[in-house]
Each structure stands twice: as C-alpha cells, then as structure tokens.
Design goal:
single chain, Rossmann fold, alpha/beta, globular, 261 residues
Amino acid sequence: MLSGRSILVIGGSTGIGHACALACLAQGARVTVTSYDESSLASIATESGGAITTVVADARDADATQAAVEKAASATGRMDGLVHVAGGSGRAWGDGPLDTITREGWDKTIELNLTSVFLSNQSAVRQFRRQGGGAIVNIGSVLATHPAPGHFTTHAYAAAKSAIEGFTRSVAARYAPEGIRANVIAAGLTDTPMARRAMGDAAIRHFVSTKQPLAGGRAAVPRDFGPAVAFLLSEAAGFITGQVLSIDGGWALSDGQTSPR
C-alpha cells in the first residue's frame, strides 16, 4: 500500500510507534523514526536490517522535529506521511485529578502530549504544501471522550488527547483542498512501557477484561495499530480525512462493570 512512499514516525522506536513503523515498512514505505532514546533507535534499526532510518530527537523540540522532517524528505524531496505517536503519562510531574494537579504537571503533560503534536504536524504540513499533499495520523486516546474515573484520572492527559481530536479535525478542514489529509486513532489501554502502572494493577486488569471485551477481554498490543495506520496513510484511504478511528477493543461501547465470561 505504501510502496515508494516516505513515512516519518515521531516516537517510533517502542510500543505503538515501533509497530506502526514496521507495518509501514512491510507495506513498502521508506521509514524514518525518531526517539530521544538512542538505544531503542539502535534496536529498531537492527531489527529492520538497516532499512529504517533513525533520528535522535525530542518531540518537544521544534528544531529537532523540523530536522526529522527534512531527513525523511531528503532522499526524494518528499515526505508522504507523518505518524505522531510520541506522548506519555504526566503522573511523575503531578498530573492527576483536577483538585490535585500541580502547575508543573499540567504544563509538562500538555507539552509532551499536545505541543509535540502541534510541532510535528506544523513541520509536516509545511512540507506537504510544498510538494502538493500528504497524510497525517495522530495517535490519541479513548480517554479523550470516554473517561474511566475509577482508574484513570489524569486530567491534563485527557485534556491533551481531547485537544488532539479538535486540532486534527481543524487541520483536516483547512488543508483538504491542498490534498492534505489528517486523521486520529483513539487508542484503548495498550500494553506498552507507558502502561506499566495499569498493567501491574490487578483491579485495572479486571476492569479492562470487561471494558475492552474483544479478543477475550485484553489490553491492546502494539501490533493492533500498525495495519490501520498503514491504511490511513495510503491511497486506499484517499477520501478519508478528519476522522477519529477507535482501536479500543470495545472500550467506548462497554461500561466495564459486567463480570467476565
């Protein structure tokens, strides 16, 4: 689906980003991934047999993000797709329920999960306008629209993920006449390093077994996302923009209170 296309994955060395990068590579794309973690970049480069280009970059750094876009476009003068995955929990900085969030927790969580999206999307759109089109997939969260206050009460994180949906729709509307598409994937709870706290909590695992009832009631795994991302970047999705696709095992449809079968 992506033969000959250049795809940049921001935060593509581990977790969902890792799976998306490999899925795009399998569909014929030239793939560039960024991470601030050099060791994880070395690992995916080795895993891909050197087929994936790696760039050390902090997604919150505008200059580093711009350099990554330029790197992805350097071979042919084009960058055909952007996948923004980079983000994470702000609990360590003080994110939590509104009455307890610290100012540092708010500012750093928003910077990591929303400002970084703004930076990567801005650089990508500028490149897409020069070349006459391109596609963006931003990774959001089901917590943007379907909160679970009993177990997931990080309100700055929820605000950032909600904003990603509005931001992406606005971008999609503005740039559609220029052949630029933008969509969101709203991810359910996924077994990644970021979810270590949740995956280690027996009560949350029980909750997820009913909240995400597909496939026996499990957390998502990174490979659940790769095929959908590759599709949304491809010409097969050429008439799709401004949409939010939930990949959540049924989270948005379930109350998470029934007993597991």
